[in-house]
Amino acid sequence: MNDMLRQLRGVVSLLHEEGEAGDVVDWEAAVAELGLASFPADYRGFVTLLGAGSLEDSLFVSIPRPGEPSAPLTVGRLPSDAYDSMNEWQDSSLGSRPALVDMLVWGQQGGFKFPVGAGCR
After folding, report:
1. Domain total in the chain
2. In this structure, are strands 59-61 and 112-116 parallel, antiparallel, or unpaired?
3. Which residues contact residue 39 at a Cβ distance below 8 angstroms, ignoring those fewer than 6 apart?
4. How far is CA 40 from CA 80, 87, 101, 111, in A?
5. Which domain holds residue 55?
6. Residue 94 within a domain
7. CB within 8 A of 68, min separation 6: which ones?
8. CA separation for the pair 46, 62 (Å, rounded)
C-alpha cells in the first residue's frame, strides 16, 4: 500500500496547485472519541494524502472528525438499524469477526454505507 500511496502522491501533486489534497486529523482524539485502539496505517496515509470526499461522485470516503459527529463525510458507528440486514456477518460458523457494535462506517457507494472494523473497544 505504501508504494501505491507514493504513486498517488505524485499524481495529486500534479492535479492540485498546492500539491496536497488531504485532511489533517487529530488521530489521538479520534481514537479516544470512538473508543478504538487505532486506525490502520494505510487508512491514515490515504486520509493524509487524499482526505474526505468522493471519487467520480460514486464512492464517498469519510474521515474521523473529533467533536463533529454530524459533519458530512464523518466516520461513525454502524447504525443499529443496519444490524438486521447483516445476519450473515453475525453467523458464528463463518469464523471470528468484529462485533457489529464495533464497526465503523468509513464510506459509502450509491447510498450503501461501508462498515469496517477499525479497531477494538
Report:
1. 1
2. unpaired
3. 27, 30, 31, 64, 118, 119
4. 24, 26, 18, 24
5. 2-116
6. yes
7. 74
8. 11
Residues 6+ apart with CB under 8 A from 19: 12, 13
- Vertex 76, ends 71 and 82: CA angle to 5°? 120
The reply to whether 121 falls in a domain is no
Whether 25 and 32 have beta carbons less than 8 Å apart is answered as no
How many Cβ atoms sit within 10 Å of the Cβ of residue 61? 20
Q: Write down the pTM of the prediction.
A: 0.70
- What tens digit of pLDDT does each residue of 88-104 get? 777 778 777 777 777 88
Q: What is the pLDDT of residues 33-44, one digit of tens each?
A: 998 888 988 889
Contacts 24+ apart (CB under 8 A), 31-40: 31/119, 32/66, 33/64, 33/66, 33/67, 34/64, 34/75, 34/77, 34/104, 34/118, 34/119, 35/121, 36/118, 36/119, 36/120, 36/121, 37/119, 37/120, 38/119, 39/64, 39/118, 39/119, 40/118
The average confidence (pLDDT) of the chain is 77
